[in-house]
Amino acid sequence: MTEKKKLLVLCVALFCFIAVSAQQRMSVSSPDGKLRFSLKVTPESVSYDIDYRKQSLIANSLLGFSFDSGEFGRNLKAGKVQRKKIDETYKLIVGKTSSVRSRCNEMTVPMQERSDSGRLINLVVRAFDDGIAFRYEFPEQKAWDSYVMYDERTQFNLQGNPMALLMYLPGYVNTHEGVYSHVRYDKVARKRLIEMPATFEFDNGVAVAITEAAIRDYAGMYLVKEKGGLVGKLSPKLGQEKIKVETDSFPHRTPWRVISVADRVGGLLETNILTSLNEPCRIEDTSWIKPCRTTFTWWNGNVVPDSTFSPGNNFDTNKYYIDFAARNGLDAHGIYGYAETPWYYDDNFNFGWAGPNADVTKPIPCLNMPRIVEYARSKGVGIHLWVHWRPLYDKLEEAFALYEGWGVRGLMVDFMDRNDQEMIRIQEEILECAARHRLFIQFHGSSKPSGLVRTYPNEFTREGTLNYEVCKWDTLVNADHDIAIPFTRMLAGATDYHLGGFRALPRSEFKIQYVNPHVMSTRCHMLAMYVVLENHLTSLCDTPKAYEGQPGFEVLRTVPGTWDEIRVPLARMNEHVTVARRSGSDWWVGSLNNGTERDLKLELDFLSEGDYQATIYTDAEDVERNPNNLDRQVRKVTRKDIIELNLAKDGGALLHIRRL
Fold first, then answer.
1. Could you tell me the keywords of this UniProt record (predicted)?
2. Mean per-residue pLDDT for 487-494?
């Protein structure tokens, strides 16, 4: 080798040595060692990888920010890594399980600029057996104590070409409702907002869901597919596009970016990772927080039978539904108003757009609210009020004090339609104030939950999904849409879905009607939804006449609103799912099907030893002609039994299993 060649080799080696030495690499693995998060810090960038059982799921995904004070993500050095093991057990007042073991390994990496400004951001990573979560923390520091954020540049570069189940949205101000697309990852549309959670299933069965946890004093995130993969996009401040998040003091922190991982898609439904990433309960006395089952008369059109009074904003209409609730052991009756007129004064006469002088403390006189409240109290029935968020927020403390005095159980707070930083703050203020006045909250027209039910268990449910209200004006919601929800929106938490339609028609005969609406799924499908979907506010949205004396109504009267344990024995993404939930010693099993008939074999090995009595509801033989028909069978079972479930198209099944 000539001297010239030797010198060239030496230069190349020296360059490689310098390049490698400039890199900083660190990683953290899950307690079982199957899931690993790897971080790489170079002078040019900060990036991460996620591997599951040595399979690359996410690779070379960049991290960083864009602030008014400049970009953050280049020319960084990683400080001393801090590590700790977390292994704790906590209780959920309402949730998919009553007791949760949170077990993970945590790594905190200080990332500081090498420039004179020396801005410092900590990256905190937690590796659970069923997912990876990371967030950014802004500690107190001398040279930097506030920011205006233009973008959070967090990437999720999925590897391979998994099947994707996701929903596109038209813009940042939206109802968070839409249909789902089930396509290969390479067919996912570019430059369109994608709602989270978004779910991906690899050909070997490994499933991944991307979402966020503990969204507080920060903007909600969406995904957008760009050339390099998926990129997080924050919801901007209302009225402009550039500013996403502002804070005038440190410490501050972002929500957790969550990548749930399971070796089967049903495993994604069993995780409690979102609540584990939230703070403990902030409400000292939680004895009043109990799941609630309520009427929701807006859906059916406030229908009353032929009588001496007309339906409307009056005492007699509400008395009719209060009597129904009292007869059937329901906890509350929902009052929203009638037609386009709320129950309170609103000079706009439009539910969606509150007038400038709308006042949620002034019931309209014809309603006779004091008489309604007193009558409901005499019957042991609570009141559940609908309100538009804006006039409520104008008089938050005054309104909640008034409602507490009336004996109101909780509220549906509607038409929020945003998840920018301001709206996220407003939602938490509503929960805090409601807790002081012993009120539960149901957010409607709202963004997805993020596990905050651990901190504020008075948040019973949220909408954020296209649901059965649509049957009043469109045909978009059917069994094929329903089956997407457990694998997407429900992964974020309790899901308000306007359940309870007991007037089913076959798809070919379905007709749209605003009053007394129909549904396109079978009665058993509807019953199964009450178990498959997590929801701590059980809705009975149809009329008393549609329910009383009808097969399956006993399920709606008795199905629990919170649970001790969850198992998902059968699931195939976007086709069918079977969810088993335990309450005490009882098990409830809901099996939900899409528009294709199928047979399933359900093993009862989730039961403990001993004898049980199973009440089994299945689609009747003539269900294609009359989807309201069902078969009810009672039999003795043990954990060794296998139940054959013959699911009709648009159908389902429900089991209530009691220990003998």
1. Calcium, Glycosidase, Hydrolase, Signal
2. 98
